[in-house]
Amino acid sequence: MKQTCRTAFMHSLPVMAGYIVLGIGFGLIAEENGYGILWALAMSLFIYAGSMQYVAVSLLTSGASLLSAALTTLMVNARHLFYGLSMIEPYRNAGKTKPYLIFALTDETYSLVCSGKAPEGVDFHRYSFLVSLFHHIYWITGSVIGAAVGTLLPFGTAGVEFAMTALFITVFVEQWKSTKNHLPAIIGVLASGICLIVFGPDNFLIPSMAAISCALIIGRRWMDIPGETEDNA
Predict the structure, then answer these.
(1) Three-state DSSP state, 233
(2) Which of 74, 80, 147, 183 could pair with 40 in a Cys bridge, judged by C-beta atoms 3.0 to 4.6 Å apart?
(3) Residue 202 — left, alpha, or beta (φ > 0 → left; ψ -120 to 50 → alpha)?
(4) Model-level pTM greater than 0.90?
(5) With contact defined as beta carbons under 8 Å apart, do 110 and 141 qualify?
(6) What is the pLDDT of residues 98-145, one digit of tens each?
(7) Contact 124, 118 (CB under 8 A)
(8) Are 23 and 145 in contact (CB under 8 A)?
């Protein structure tokens, strides 16, 4: 267990740097809009949705309806539907930790567990649980720090939300460098670019995710895609 914990922690360190900074940004924005430390803590503990938490502050302050909030959440987090589909088999026998693994499957956590395999000598399900838990702790810590700093010091939040985009770019670059097969990444970029042009910046997310999924499913046997079984190789 010590080896698993140590391995998971070491692999989570790059995400820690990003999550604490992003969490601080969220905490600052929450505090600036009248939602203090307890609100930031509760949202990071129970929502834990990264970019959606930034959006949630705007929804709360604008008095958005429940339907509007639900549709916005679907649009912002639709990509997790596709993450989840690819993790059905890897998480099938996760036991009691399975609900939390599903809840805590963020973009950055997915990038570490999507292969369905853990480092040598480490149990995959324990490794996945600890990676998910460490990432969650980092996000909560950053959120609370940000809210506390916002309470004590005046702080301009203009441009803070771009930190989430920066982290996505960092994860993409790391994934690109860690694999020799760049075809899935190229498909993702091209599909997103085409859908952005066709549907516009407000409506391209779901069409692009659908296009990417279809392309990867159709070309799965020719690409090294996480979740592929030996029988399909």
Answers:
(1) coil
(2) 147
(3) alpha
(4) no
(5) no
(6) 999 999 999 889 888 987 788 888 899 999 999 999 999 999 999 999
(7) yes
(8) yes
